[in-house]
Amino acid sequence: MADVYLHKKSDREKVIHFVSLTLAVVLFFFYLKHLNFEPLLTKDNIRFLLFGMPGEIGGLALTIIMTVIVVPVSLFLGALIAVMRNSKIFKIPAILYVEVIRATPLIMVIFWVYFAIPIFVRGITGKDISVQPVIAALIAFSIFTSAYVAEIIRSGLNSISKGIKEAAVSLGFNKFQIYAYIIMPLVIKRMLPALLSQYIALFKDTSLAYIIGVIEFFRAATILNNRLFLSMEIFTLVAIVYFVIAFSVSKFARHLEYKWRKQLSE
Question: Which family does it belong to (predicted)?
Fold first, then answer.
């Protein structure tokens, strides 16, 4: 009886999801029908949105490059901080780092890196330096994202049973090898959905780099809008691009997660 009820409930949910999706698609196409994309979709405009100004990388290409660079850097820093939080010596500094960064808006971290680093260096060396906006943005995103990644990895570390660690020790692995070759791969596989959500958020948050003059995808769209005055068309296109990339990465990661779980269960 319970199986029949669950089956009916599942069918009902599928119908509701299908109807909702169909309605959303119809409304969206109706909305697109009333927009004029023709002045926007020229060769020069598309090139500007994709690659920014001639002679330098910008636009969507820069957004993707920044994300690709920050992902491994923040993953390494996050893993390091997560391990430090389980250490008696480094626990307090690691907790302070995570709590301070998570309590600070990302835009403030960007400003702090961009303006504070030159002041800090001048105070130590007496030399005036300037930080390139893209470099400052990469540092800020790495610092900010690593604090959240550290908490995700720490949750994964806490889910690893002591038996796995004891078995690794009995096989002659040292502490570094245990974390690098056994624990961290398991943690990343288990925490993939949470890590994915964080990195999709990072991909979208790169738009905040415009505040220090980085001409990434959103800033390029804003510059184009100031020239064409097609706000709805331009930012609708931007939203579609963000959605398509984020959704594609999400589907790929879910497929990867399913494949890994299947391998672990075999």
Answer: Belongs to the binding-protein-dependent transport system permease family. HisMQ subfamily.
Please check the confidence at residue 174 and state whether its pLDDT lies above 50.
yes
Residue 5 confidence (pLDDT):
45
Of 149, 142, 136, 144, which is closest to residue 216 (Cα–Cα)? 136
- Tell me phi and psi for residue 105, to 5 degrees: -60, 145
Contact 191, 245 (CB under 8 A): no
Residue 211, judged by CB atoms within 10 A of its CB (0-12, 13-18, 19+), counts as middle
Q: Give pLDDT tens digits for 134-166.
A: 999 999 999 999 999 999 988 887 777 777 777
Q: Which two tokens stand for residue 178?
A: 């245990």
Question: Around Cβ 121, how many Cβ atoms within 10 Å?
Answer: 14
